[in-house]
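Troubleshooting: if your tokenizer reports a length mismatch, compare your output against this known-good record of 203 residues.
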Amino acid sequence: MFLALVDWHRVFHEAGWLAYILLGCFTAALFIIIERGYALRNGGIIPADLADAIMEGRSTSGGKHSAASRIIDFVHRHPGDSEGAKAYARLEIMRMERGVSYLDVIYTGAPLIGLIGTVSGLLTAFSVIDPETHMPDPVRFTESVGYALSATLLGLIVAVVALVGNGYLQRRVDKHAARLDVLLERILTNRQQELNSPEAARR
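Known-good structure output:
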């Protein structure tokens, strides 16, 4: 594998101070991917047993442990307010997307940071001229080009990680959003049936 052949110590050394910025971006991207991946697990959004109960029309109770249960709790606290429930469901979807937008910034910005290293390294390479040959000094030229290419490599790696993570998380959010739309309609229907039941009328 190509990446296994790379001398990463040398790459970080040649990338200079930009390596620390890109390492920070990489750490932030990994944190967002791991944290959101855990938060978007099925049990944290729509537990299987709760989804089955909703689809089968069984009585359900709300709570705070998942997005679906919070929506149920809102519907129970605001009976008859279907528009409010739909707005609250949209807020839950926005909560699921929290932090994911930063991955857009990272995978857009990381290659640009690497490009800064490319340009500055090449400028340095061509700025040192040997007075005898009137050509760039070979040693400084090699070091500067190495700095330029190392920063670019790190920037592209960070961008790829952020891009893949962003795509995965967005698919998870879209999947959960579609399921919540279906379940919300069932929740509202079930709640309306409960309110119209003879037991509710006697109360």
